[in-house]
Specification:
GO terms for molecular function: glutaminase activity. This protein is of the alpha+beta class and 308 residues long. The chain is 44% helix and 12% strand. Bound molecules: glutamine. The site of glutamine has 11 residues, from loops.
């Protein structure tokens, strides 16, 4: 790894994808996100052997948005038995936009997977049922995983999402109508929006998600976060559902388990080797970072990595 990778290699990859600027669109359905400059571009890699590489805007914090869906699932896996989770949410790709209501009606309130909004809202409903302070608990976990004590929620983004929450509220209420949502909708939405509004940098994200490359633990962690089997399961869900309706296209181009967020971040895992975080706020039509995908594609081609 060290012989083929260094910060200059990453800088060169950034220059390769920079011309894509202007081809995507910064998310505007959450008004507080529109203020972010589309110019931003960063990458960070943390390896299981303890190395760290970075280039571009890798230290600048941004809204992690749906990357938080992986973290909330991990917390649920720590507090619930397997059956309790997977009777309420599925494990299959949805083939639909992340905020779609269509399947939910047809499939009687059971979301296809935990990485679309409906699935993440069910997971947040579970956390509300079993944790005394779900927001505080998430902060503690993320601070521990990232080894960074000042990770925080961006309250402006969280409020902006709550003020424009019609669709997510509709999803939650539809699930409630099918008996798959137990707590107060507004309370759970607030938790979910706060998780989405965590502000983190690529470096912090690569470190946070390193446990998924290292069988559930990481060199900087005192104890495992997940068992090796749970880790494989989360990676499998990321590979099949982490990029919404473009999971197949992403598998074709990049070939790694990954999760995207509408803040323009993507985290990708090379099992047994490294966690990669990229950030470029302009999105494609599926809500995935356009240059971020191109950057991961260029990187995996250069390194010759894929899980397939
Ligand atoms: N907070 C966003 C939403 O609920 C997250 C979506 C995303 O990042 N894909 O719409």
């Amino acid at each position: 790894m060290a012989t083929v990778m260094d910060n200059d290699v990453l800088e060169a990859l950034l220059e390769q994808v920079r011309p894509l600027k202007g081809q995507g669109k910064v998310a505007d359905y959450i008004p507080a996100l529109v203020t972010v400059s589309g110019d931003k571009l960063g990458i960070a890699i943390c390896t299981v052997s303890g190395e760290q590489f970075q280039a571009g805007d890798a230290d600048e914090r941004f809204s992690i948005q749906s990357l938080s869906k992986v973290l909330s699932l991990v917390v649920a896996m720590n507090h619930y038995e397997e059956d309790e989770i997977w009777t309420r949410v599925g494990k299959d790709p949805s083939g639909q936009p992340f905020n779609s209501l269509l399947q939910l009606e047809i499939e009687q309130g059971k979301p296809r997977n935990p990485f679309i909004n409906a699935g993440a809202l069910v997971v947040c409903d579970m956390l509300q049922s079993r944790l005394s302070a779900p927001r505080q608990r998430m902060l503690e976990i993320v601070r521990k995983l990232s080894a960074t004590p000042d990770i925080a929620f961006d309250s402006v983004v969280a409020r902006s999402e709550f003020e424009h929450s019609a669709r997510n509220a509709a999803i939650a209420w539809l699930m409630k109508s099918f008996g798959n949502f137990n707590n107060d909708v507004a309370t759970v939405l607030q938790n979910y929006f706060h998780y989405c509004a965590l502000k983190m940098s690529c470096v912090e994200l690569a470190r946070t998600f390193l446990f998924l490359a290292d069988k559930g633990t990481a060199p900087h962690l005192a104890e495992p976060v997940l068992t090796p089997q749970q880790t494989r399961q989360v990676n499998a869900l990321m590979a099949t559902s982490g990029m919404y309706q473009n999971a197949g296209e992403f598998a074709w181009r990049v070939g790694l388990p990954a999760k995207s967020g509408v803040g323009g971040g993507i985290v990708a895992i090379v099992p047994q080797e490294m966690a990669i975080a990229v950030w470029s706020p302009e999105l494609d039509e599926a809500g995935n970072s356009l240059a971020g995908i191109a950057l991961l594609e260029a990187l995996t081609q250069q390194l010759g990595r894929s899980v397939y």
